[in-house]
Amino acid sequence: MQAALWRRYGPPESLTLGEAPMPTPGPGEIRIRVHASTVTSGDARLRGCRGAGIFWLPLRLIYGLTRPRHPIPGMEFAGVVEALGPGVTGFAIGDRAFGLAPRGAHAEYLTMPETGCVARQPAGLSHAEAAALPFGALTALVFLRDVAEARSGERVLVHGAGGAVGVYLVQLARHFGLAVTAVASARHATRLRDLGAQQVLDRETGDFTTQGARYDIVLDTVGGTSLRAVRRILTPQGRHVFVNFATRELGAMLATRLRPGPRVLCGYAPGRQADLLTIRDLAAQGALRPVIGHRMPLAEITAAHALVDSGRKQGALVLDVIPAECQRPA
């Protein structure tokens, strides 16, 4: 089968397109014919093993100390169940499936445990739209519901609202009954208002910490917010939540647990099947809409990673593993 191959840590050019062995589903596993995948900021960080900070050594131990242990990258996927391993009862051949894999999604075929982060696709979505959901939407759900413990009626500010996680934070916050302020580049303003933001602030021309408004939650998806400045605009029970964090944020989280007032919170989205089912149901109800900014063939995997590295990616960058015109309609 064709696959993107990851033989060393490094720049986008460290990825190549080549042949890989067809995976065989083991007991309790399904094999999926991948129609669409994505390149996320997480894929780009893992490719170069950069920006990991204190997590550098744990990541290297998981993915390979000197070079990648598993040669095929990629996390998000959508496609059709093509084979079943012994004992599989939750899926049937021909089911349209989507989900989040630990690796291996940038290939024509992928095996997943049926109890892993995989589910039948939301009704009415294309493969590309389904592939654009899991990474951003699962992260947004966990950080808003579990880490921030958001409550209806609260005021939330999303910093980096135009990114792959931010667009789902805006939609879920609206769905949960929060008043949403989005901070993003001006080019995202129309889309973010359409997704549910009541106010959109241009991150390039203003400082939201000097606007005079106060918030119950400030969710930072991209880093760069000032702990001191944000604390001034939080309510007494406010939460400053970091999706990406390092030693400084972890230290602040521990320190703010020991004193009254606003808290700093960090967390992790583990990719649970139950949460994916929640995301699927919200998408089927129309409460979540995939946001796709770019589509490229798998053969352009190097260019796709370069686009992510450039910071110019808007919404999801979908890889068409099967050409779009050949994909089965929903």
Provide tags for this entry:
Quinone Oxidoreductase, Chain A, domain 1, alpha/beta, 15 strands, 28% helix, globular, Rossmann fold, 2 domains, 330 residues, 10 helices, seven-stranded mixed β-sheet, single chain
List the helices and strands and how they pair.
Layout: E1 2-6, E2 15-19, E3 29-38, H1 41-48, H2 56-63, E4 76-84, E5 96-100, E6 109-113, E7 118-120, H3 127-131, H4 134-147, E8 155-159, H5 166-175, E9 179-184, H6 189-195, E10 199-202, E11 215-220, H7 227-233, E12 234-242, H8 247-257, E13 263-266, H9 273-285, E14 292-297, H10 301-310, E15 316-320
Parallel strand pairs: 8-9, 8-11, 9-10, 11-12, 12-13, 14-15
Antiparallel strand pairs: 1-2, 3-4, 3-6, 3-15, 4-5, 5-7
Characterization of this structure:
- With 330 residues, the protein is an alpha/beta fold.
- The chain folds into 2 domains: 2-133 and 290-326, Quinone Oxidoreductase, Chain A, domain 1, CATH 3.90.180; 136-266, Rossmann fold, CATH 3.40.50.720.
- It is 28% helix and 26% strand.
- The radius of gyration is 20 Å and the shape is globular.
